[in-house]
Specification:
By secondary structure, this protein is mainly α. It has 8 helices and no strands. The chain has a domain of 113 residues: Orthogonal Bundle (Cytochrome Bc1 Complex, Chain D, domain 2). Bound molecules: heme C.
Length: 174
């Protein structure tokens, strides 16, 4: 009986503490402080395991064509590079001010399977800056992006710069 009373007191105290935190404004919502290590571990592990579980049923194409990689690059340089940077490219102003920091995909893309990258780009990641692109792109567009993102770890700075030049070049005169 004493145990139950102690438990009820603890629950009530916890709830009061939670309410005090919400209403006092003491919690600092600014992005410029990092989560304590145990919380960062919980959040990051939940993210990784959630993506792996949800992407399990998605079948990726066995391989991608060069045309898909080029089409994916056009989306990447317009949309993703601002947050994630690219070979020889720093992220833009938006990417520099986010918490969690957008990972540098040139280093991290190899940690993910194609179906997992597809899931992340399609669905986004809650409570981070990673948007869902489902409202704007069809699955085929997203597979093109996956085709390009997979190339990032082996793409040299010069190759990325050359792809940018080719994309910006005016169409040949007729
Ligand atoms: C507004 C900023 C923003 C944009 C634009 C953005 N992302 Fe992200 N992205 C993030 C953030 C922040 C994370 C980290 C999420 C986390 O840590 O849970 C992330 C995570 C990812 C991851 C997982 C990487 C890892 O190593 O954990 C992939 C893959 C990814 N984004 C791909 C893309 C692609 C491809 C695009 C463009 C179509 C894109 N993102 C556009 C902010 C952005």
């Amino acid at each position: 009986m004493r145990c139950i009373k102690a438990l009820i007191v603890l629950i009530v105290l916890g709830a009061l503490g939670g309410l005090a935190l919400i209403y006092s404004g003491l919690f600092n919502v600014a992005v410029d402080w990092k989560d304590p290590a145990p919380i960062a571990w919980v959040v990051h592990s939940t993210f990784i395991n959630s993506v792996k579980a949800h992407a399990r049923g998605i079948a990726a194409p066995a391989s991608f064509t060069d045309a898909q990689v080029r089409a994916g690059f056009l989306h990447y340089k317009e949309t993703c590079v601002y947050c994630h940077g690219g070979p020889g490219k720093d992220p833009g102003d938006i990417g520099k001010g986010l918490n969690p920091e957008p990972p540098y995909l040139v280093d991290t893309a190899k940690n993910w399977q194609p179906n997992e990258i597809f899931w992340i780009v399609k669905n986004g990641v809650r409570m981070t800056g990673m948007p869902s692109f489902a409202p704007v792109w069809k699955d085929d567009d997203i597979w093109n992006i996956v085709a390009f993102v997979q190339k990032l770890p082996t793409l040299k700075d010069e190759e990325y710069a050359r792809m940018e030049q080719e994309a910006n070049a005016p169409p040949p005169a007729r």
